[in-house]
Amino acid sequence: MAMGRAQWGSKLGFVMAASGSAVGLGNLWKFPYITWENNGGAFVIVYLAAVLILGLPIMMAEILVGRRAQQSAVPAFEALGGRGWSIVGWLGVLAGAVILSYYTVIAGWSISSFVQCLGWSFNGYAAPSADAFDKFLANGPLQLGLTAVFTILTAVIVYRGIGGGIELATKIMMPVLIIILLYLVGTALTMEGRGQALSMIFTPNFSELPPQGVLLAVGQAFFSLSLGLGAMVAYGSYIGKKESIFGSALWVVILDTGFALLACIAMFTIIFSVPDLQGRLSGSTVGMLFITLPDLFYTKMPGGAVLAPAFFILVGFAALSSTISLGEVVTSLMIDRRGWSRPKAVIVCSGVIFVGSIFAALSLGAVDSLSSFELFEGKKGVLSNLDHLAANWLLPLGGLGTTVFVGWFLGKENIREELGFTRQGIYFAMFLWSLRVIAPIAILILLGFVISGRDFS
Ligand code: PHE
């Protein structure tokens, strides 16, 4: 198996592709709006703690499993732990399919924002009416069309395989995205609302954190870092034997968290600076990314008319590098496990998942029964229920399986060797302890809350 398996061109190739998976709508779309809804500060602290205490070790564990086994999640867990453990991989494949089915819907919004910005760039900016975004959400054919475009884009890149497709694409777009985001933040910080925004994000006030906010932050850490579904197992299987797993994982975590915080700073500052913006957001916080930023581009930023469309293209690319990894989780299973050819795996999997997307895309106001569908209490619509299912059940469960497996069943020597420690010193002990004890207990508490009916999405 080890022979002939494709490898990343370099360590940078892995870090870029893995952070391409991690950085996406979770950072730019979801983190800012749930941080807003949970009153910032304390929520951000809990999120950062979750990233450090759970995210980093679990990411290392996933990469480790992949590189050790040289296979994607299902066969990897089976090869290292026996049949029973492959269930962790299967769970991940299910999570990947679920996430992909609604992620492409939101990713499609980046395409429409791009087109809208092109219009503004040529004809001048006019702030949209308060209900414009809700109307857009309720436009069924449009939502379906955008989702279809995004699904096809994803399929084409996954079809081209590692290296030629994934690595090349992410290497080009990640750095550009960072630069534009920094410029956005720099400009935002000249606006008067910056003080309020920064204090909302960075001044913790634990009495303002809703109880379910803690749990929400943990789920978001899994989602944002692409953990709990074997994405990093698959990518880890392509990382060279000489690369440091800790170093690679740390880079991905830093980049991912940086993106999330920068996005928050830019958006919150705009919200506090532009008078009518809170009103425009009230009905659809979910559209924060797409509602707030054009204001900054077109009213404050030199060069904004060029950068606004560019930015939304890059948001699309960031989403694309995430959907690619989700697609890779599902298709690589069919290839490694069922012996399917890559083209067949890509076509069949994309088709099946798109059927799910249809329900998600029409659940934003277009079709009443789908929009009022409620599987989890308080969740309205197919899309938000799928999101809840994935972030609050499937990813934490997958993460639990991974930590328990690596911590207790993989064997100390295997771990030590794979991490490149020459002996079992203090850092090794810390890593083992967090995998064996801290991470599983934290996740069990989290799942306990979910089972007892506490909503945290
Ligand atoms: N981490 C991605 C994001 O933040 C979403 C994702 C989750 C991608 C799980 C792959 C696997 O947008």
Give structural notes.
There is one protein chain. By secondary structure, this protein is mainly α. 76% of the residues lie in helices and 0% in strands. The chain has 20 helices and no strands. Helix 5 (86-123) crosses helix 16 (342-361). The longest helix has 38 residues, at 86-123. The protein is globular and about 60 Å long. The mean pLDDT is 89. The structure holds phenylalanine. The site of phenylalanine has 15 residues, from helix 1, helix 2, helix 10 and helix 15.
How would you summarize what this structure contains?
The chain contains 20 helices and no strands. By secondary structure, it is mostly helical.
Shape: globular
Poorly predicted ranges (pLDDT <50, ≥5 residues)? none
Q: Indicate the mean pLDDT.
A: 89
- In DSSP terms (H or I, runs of 4 or more residues), the helix count works out at 20
List key phrases describing it:
457 residues; 20 helices; mainly alpha; globular; binds phenylalanine
Secondary-structure map with pairings?
Layout lengths: L10 H12 L2 H13 L4 H28 L3 H9 L4 H38 L8 H6 L2 H21 L5 H23 L5 H9 L8 H14 L6 H6 L8 H29 L3 H6 L5 H12 L4 H35 L3 H20 L6 H4 L10 H28 L2 H8 L6 H26 L6
Helix pairs in contact: 1-8, 1-12, 1-15, 2-10, 2-12, 3-4, 3-10, 3-12, 3-18, 3-20, 4-5, 5-7, 5-15, 5-16, 5-18, 7-15, 7-16, 8-12, 8-15, 9-12, 10-18, 12-14, 14-15, 15-16, 18-20
Bound molecules: phenylalanine (PHE).
